[in-house]
Every structure is written in C-alpha cells, then in structure tokens.
Specification:
The protein is mainly β. It has two helices and 13 strands; from the N terminus they run E-E-E-E-E-E-E-E-E-E-E-E-H-H-E. The strands form three sheets. A five-stranded mixed beta sheet has the order 5-6-7-9-8, with no helix packed on it. The protein has a four-stranded antiparallel beta sheet with strand order 1-2-3-4, with no helix packed on it. Strand 3 (41-46) and strand 4 (54-59) form a beta hairpin.
Amino acid sequence: MVHVYNCHPFASQQIVQVEQEPGLVCSGGGALFVVTTGGCKVEAYNLEKEGCPLICRFATMGTVRRIQHSTIGDYLVTIEEKNSATYLRVYTNWRFQAEEKARVGVRLLGHLLRGASVWGGVQMEIIEIPMSEHPVAVACCSVKGDLLVGCENTLVLFALRRHTQQNLKENQQELQSSWSNAEQSCSQSRGRTFSPNLELSVLDFERSVILHLSKINPKE
C-alpha cells in the first residue's frame, strides 16, 4: 500500500483583505504585492503585522504581465505591455510611497537622476531597461540581487549595482557648476531628514552576460 502525505508549506494562514480583485501576486521582504485586475496598479501589504495592513499602492506605466520581488535591493521587476509594445521595468524605493509622496523618477538603465533621488533615494524610481527582444520571464538572484531576463531567443543577466554617495559625488564633478550648486543645495536640505550614520545608495543595473539560445525558448 502506498501512503500519500499532503504537505502544506504555509508560514501562516493569514487572510489579506484587498480592496480590488487581484490579478497577479508575488511576495518578498515581508510584503505581499498584489497587481489588481487591469494590471496597472500595485498594492503592497505588510505580512509581518497583524491584519496585514496596506503599506502603499502605486500605479505602473503599463499593464503588468509578470512581476517579481528581489529581497536583495528590495526592488520589483515587471514585464509590462502598453500600446502593443513590451517593456521591462524595475521599481526601486517603492516603500517611500507609504509616506504619501507623489514624486516618482523615471530613468533609463545606467542614467542616474540628479537631485533628490541621488541623495539617499528619497523618491520611488522606475528604471527602464531597453531590450532588443521581447522579455517573457524574469528571475532575481537571492544572494546578489542580480536580474535574469528570459527573451524569445536569449538570456540576459543584469548585475545589480549600488552607487554610494561618495561615488555619485565623484561622477557629478564632471557636470556643469550650475547643476553642482543645485545638487549641493538639495543635499543640505535633505540631509536633515536622515540619520548621519545611514549609508545612502542608489540602485542600478549593468548588462553583464548575454546567452544566445538556438533551440530553446524560455518560459520561466
């Protein structure tokens, strides 16, 4: 006789009450992320507090088809569609939306923003990652936070990079003096709101490996 044992690997049996019908879900960093039906809004709920209260909600730039969370870097990566085009985007500093700050920065991969986002990530940033092929699947490394993207005929690995305040200052020395003065003024005003012992950094990615596949089409 064969005995079958049912295993239910649930850390808890909490019930998360959402306001709208959920479409996609993922979790990480003590939070549950719910993409509402329609795919253009993400809601984050705190799984570490009783009742799983809402942390924040924010709109996406397109309809979310895939979503993953990386514990390293605490970022969200999405595959989105808009006007029949497919986009790969990374959302960083999303927790700052809990303070009801409407400021959101949008930039391309490798192009750091000036101003508030440079000094400690005080606003949510959306990083656009251009791809030569349509992305179909994403995965995040649980050790380094690197991002692996599966396309129709390639696998592309993006290494996670952290730019500290010191590195950013060195890069900004090449900018015009007018921008430098503006950044110094911004850093002084923002510096009063953060602990001096906190090492501030900005996340970015660097394309490191491209693996071409001849007879394999990645799905997950």
